[in-house]
């Protein structure tokens, strides 16, 4: 969420946040890029990003580009900052579930995913935070108030 807040403070919306858009730097990355810190997460792939005329809480909805994350309610226009927060919530949900699966499996030949994964294994505070980020979409066509800003989400 820190990276999304950083972008939004500069009036940039990533517009395509999902699990393949975040890389955790390794020592190998540091060898090629001296400004990179091992163990730190980086947002990558800005080909769908938009520079916004207005910042979070001011920017009206824009047309969504084709993205990995599917828009709720079949929406085609979205407040771009709110869209980043929504997609980051979906990303957190995916990462949380995969982390739980990897922690529960001793090998990939264990029980099928449906047998070992359950919502109840996700701590309630994590479930609530993810739900808050994803929000309760009402189909806003202007400035969205269905979920927190990236700054507000980081303060919590």
From TrEMBL:
GO terms for molecular function: ATP binding; protein kinase activity. Residues 1-156 form the Protein kinase domain. This is Protein kinase domain-containing protein. InterPro entries: Kinase-like_dom_sf, Prot_kinase_dom. It comes from Polyporus arcularius HHB13444. It comes from the Eukaryota. Transmembrane segments: none annotated. SUPFAM superfamilies: Protein kinase-like (PK-like) (SSF56112).
């Amino acid at each position: 969420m820190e990276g999304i807040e950083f972008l939004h403070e500069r009036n940039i919306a990533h517009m395509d946040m999902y699990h393949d858009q975040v890389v955790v730097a390794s020592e190998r990355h540091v060898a090629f890029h001296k400004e990179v810190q091992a163990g730190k997460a980086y947002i990558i792939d800005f080909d769908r990003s938009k520079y916004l005329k207005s910042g979070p809480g001011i920017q009206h909805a824009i047309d969504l580009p084709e993205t990995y994350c599917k828009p709720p309610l079949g929406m085609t226009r979205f407040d771009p900052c709110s869209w980043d927060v929504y997609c980051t919530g979906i990303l957190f949900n995916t990462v949380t579930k995969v982390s739980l699966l990897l922690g529960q499996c001793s090998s990939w030949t264990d029980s099928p995913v449906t047998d070992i994964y359950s919502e109840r294994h996700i701590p309630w505070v994590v479930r609530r935070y993810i739900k808050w980020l994803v929000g309760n979409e009402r189909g806003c066509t202007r400035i969205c108030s269905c979920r927190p800003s990236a700054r507000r989400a980081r303060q919590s």
